[in-house]
Amino acid sequence: MLPADWRDGLFLGRLDLGDGPTPVLLSGGIAYDMSSLAPTVADLVDAAAFDPALGFPLGDVEDVLGRARLLSPIDLQCVKAAGVTFAVSALERVIEERARGDADKAQAVRGGLEARIGGSIRSVVPGSSDAAALKAALIEDGMWSQYLEVAIGPDAEIFTKSPVLSTVGSGALIGVRSDSDWNNPEPEIVLLADARGKPVGATLGNDVNLRDFEGRSALLLGKAKDNNASCAIGPFVRLFDAGYSISDVESAQVLLRIEGPEGFLLEGESRMSEISRPPLDLLRQCFSEHQYPDGVVLFLGTLFAPTQDRDAPGRGFTHKAGDLVTISSARLGTLVNTVSTSSEAPSWETGISALYRNLAARGLIRAQAAVLAD
Question: Is 254 within 8 Å of 334 (Cβ atoms)?
Answer without folding.
Answer: no
